[in-house]
Amino acid sequence: MKILNIIKTLTLIDLLKGLKVTLKNFFKPKITVQYPEVKTPISNRFRGKLALMKYENGEERCIACKLCSAVCPANAISIDSEESEDGTRRTTRFDIDAFKCVYCGFCEEACPVDAIVETDIFEYHMTENHQRLQTKEMLLQLGDDYREKIVRKKEKDHHYK
Amino acid sequence: MSEPKITITIDDQEYKVNSGQMLIEATDQLGIHIPRFCYHEKLSIAANCRMCLVEVENSTNALPACATEVSEGMVVKTTSESAELAQQATMEFLLINHPLDCPICDQGGECELQDLAYSHGRNESRFEVKKRTLPDDNLGPLISTDMTRCILCTRCVRFGTEIAGLPELGTIGRGESSTISTFVEKTVDHELSGNMIDICPVGALNNKPYRYTDRTWELDQIESVSPHDCVGSNMFLHVKGDKIKRIVPKANPEINEVWISDRDRFAFDGIYSDDRLTVPMLRKNGVLEEATWEEAIDAFSKVLITLQNKKSKNGVAALISSSTALNEQYLYAYLMRSLGFNNIDHRIRQIDFTGDSLDPIFPNFDIKPHQIENMKSILIIGSDLRKETPLIAHWVKKAADQGASVNFINQEYSEYYFPIDNFILSGQEALAENLALVLKASNDDAVNKLPSHIEDVLNALPTPSLSHYQIAKSLANHEQSFLLSGLLCHSHSEYALIRSYLNLLSYVSNSSFGELTHGANATGAYLTGCIPHRKAFGESHELGLNALEMCTKNHQLIVLYGIEPEDCLYQEKLNQSIVGSQTTVQFSPFITPFMKENADIMFPLKTPYESKGAFINASGMIQDFNLQLDLAKDNPSNQELLLQIIEGSKLPMPSLDNLKEKIKKFIDETKNTHNRLLEIPEKVLKTTKNYSSVSSHLYDVDSITRRSRPLQQTKDALSQFSEDQ
Ligand code: SF4
Ligand code: SF4
Ligand code: SF4
Ligand code: FES
Prior knowledge:
- The complex is a heterodimer of chains A (161) and B (725).
- Helices cover 35% and strands 15% of the residues of chain A.
- Chain A is built from 6 helices and 5 strands; from the N terminus they run H-H-E-H-E-E-H-E-E-H-H.
- In chain A, the strands form 2 sheets. Chain A has a 3-stranded antiparallel sheet with strand order 2-3-5.
- The longest helix of chain A is centred in the N-terminal third of the chain and has 15 residues, at 13-27.
- The N and C termini of chain A lie far apart (62 Å).
- Chain B has 725 residues and is of the alpha/beta class.
- Chain B has 24 helices and 26 strands.
- Among the domains of chain B are: 5-97, Roll (Ubiquitin-like (UB roll)), CATH 3.10.20.740; 281-354 and 520-671, Rossmann fold (3-Layer(aba) Sandwich), CATH 3.40.50; 369-516, Dimethylsulfoxide Reductase, domain 2 (3-Layer(aba) Sandwich), CATH 3.40.228.10.
- The interface between A and B is medium-sized, with 15 and 11 residues.
- FE2/S2 (inorganic) cluster (FES) binds next to loops of chain B.
- One iron/sulfur cluster binds next to helix 3 of chain B.
């Protein structure tokens, strides 16, 4: 046994075994990318920044049922509502605290009218504390800006729901 | 009067229950839940929703638990397959026409239909035809309607006929096309109608001011007592954060059963009025400016000390509202009395003070509100009962519906929706005389005889009419008889005389006697010494000026605590006195243009919705409330403010420990020794000015109610407005 060990040590067999793995991977195709120049593909179910959607005719979808704020595990959503001029139920305030949100997607799941959705945006920053509150206007704007992308993404995923 | 017990078996368990009741009553008492929509413990049985179907042995069909009387040996299964099947079928039928509104429905989260759809409903609808939709009626400013959600349980209809006495809603049409509606385009105006919001099991009738604002799960529930009348209805405030969102009744079988009046439900809106005062104000160089608390307290204490040193006892007038909490009244009276100022009063809606020396320690009310129901004969004097105390009217209605003879002596006729035996319509000047005639009629063959000098007075009166005799007879013939004097008596120019007659009548006819009072805590005001002739706990004291005298004079200092001149029956006089007085100090939650012009120091008060304290209702029941909500959180509480002023005025600190217990004990001790005063006041006031026709209107009773937007849009408030024009 002793002799065998001595031979192993002298011929560096274990080292070469290890290097063989390195060598194999060295020539394999790479899966890492040069972020941020290059980006990884994103799943249709990716859960990023939240947005509020409108109907085609521009009417807000949200009906202020507050189910999202009720289901939110992080208590990130605050909503105030009242009867609007046309007699419908509408929010007067819709704030999402980006620091509290854990991107679980429960709110999207709970929403009966598909008003609140999760986009695939995950790159954003803020410099002031108060900016963490995303107001109704910001959320609706985001929904408008990325409308097509969001619709495409949701359409692709909807077979699996 | 206990019913015989019988044995029934429910879900394989034997129970002994009272016979003669419906199955659902028995299971409710036993805590076994049977689903239901149309059954309501305070309403008659309609048995039209069929949700409560249960399996009963030896019956081929499932039977409705709300309309099946328990019987000996009955075997009931509430969760067996056939019971469940029946309930599921009912549920499916109910949901055929029900909209998928839950997310926007204010009932969502507290909806009986939603809960049962969850437990008994199918996942998918098999109904493929178009759903029925219905137009919504406008029921006025308090109740919103979404009639498509109605499941036709008819609770609201039965409420109208049985509780309010005014069938405002009804079922129209048959089968598929039946709807609930007002018969002609009409609003719902009864002063208890807000309760329909609570009894409607779905979201068809809902709270209009609250519409679409919050969800039930966001609200916290806090117990409270109504600050708007002397009944002291129990209620729950539903608050989100620091803001009151709505008010619902809290059941108290002795006071308000399960109802509250619309005034109790909607008045709170007034505290969010734009003219709320949140910072102290001080007049500097002729202008009323914002000041710090220290400055304002200092300024006030200085005025008090200066006047105390000058010994100008009569230079100070101190008025306080009868709707302030016990602790505040006690401290306020302590402050004024200790400084030697005796002019303190809360009776700003009274004009006749000649009976002060005959005053009981606190206004009489021999029975608790719910005992009115058992009365067999009731005489009501000088009261617009439904408007003054909607819940007392409710108890009287219950008595009347059970066959009691209800009689009125009143100066105006209003609709009561219960049978009235005799209604003596008497002019304001003849109110006392009409009462005296009933007394005279009673005295003829009474057991308890009156002292001769009073008989002499009665003998001088004309002969009583038939109605007087009938009332007298009804009171004498029934052991359970009750005399109720209303707020109009309080403001009557012969109040003292009327009260004496009532005392005499209750002695002669052996009836209980009750006096309605203004505000939520007039009893407290009497007991804490907020009256010119007595200190706290009824100790007699050097006489001060009464409210009317105070208002007709100018003073060196006039202090209004929780009062606005509008609250006062003689507002004009009070206004003049404020203008003519050297210094005016007002403690108030609100600031009006008039006070802005004339007040020298103003302290913001917290309303009873935001503070802590206790009210004593007309029957002497003490009830606590402890609400720490506030618009201006950092402001001291009313109690702290008064204590700081007492400290600033260099007075020894009073002890508030056990104040409530002491008062409670005192009430219990005095209540039993209340003797009927067999006396009539010597001098009788005859004023020319007819104050008491200015009755306090339903929605004008205090500063908060006056500012409540929903209430001010009701027909009652609007018609009052047009009357005043
Ligand atoms: S994603 Fe989750 S944590 Fe974020 S707002 Fe929605 S429910 Fe709340
Ligand atoms: S009444 Fe109840 S079941 Fe009907 S929509 Fe409203 S919450 Fe839903
Ligand atoms: S409105 Fe409400 S209380 Fe009235 S019948 Fe319809 S469901 Fe019942
Ligand atoms: S509750 Fe029994 S039929 Fe409606």
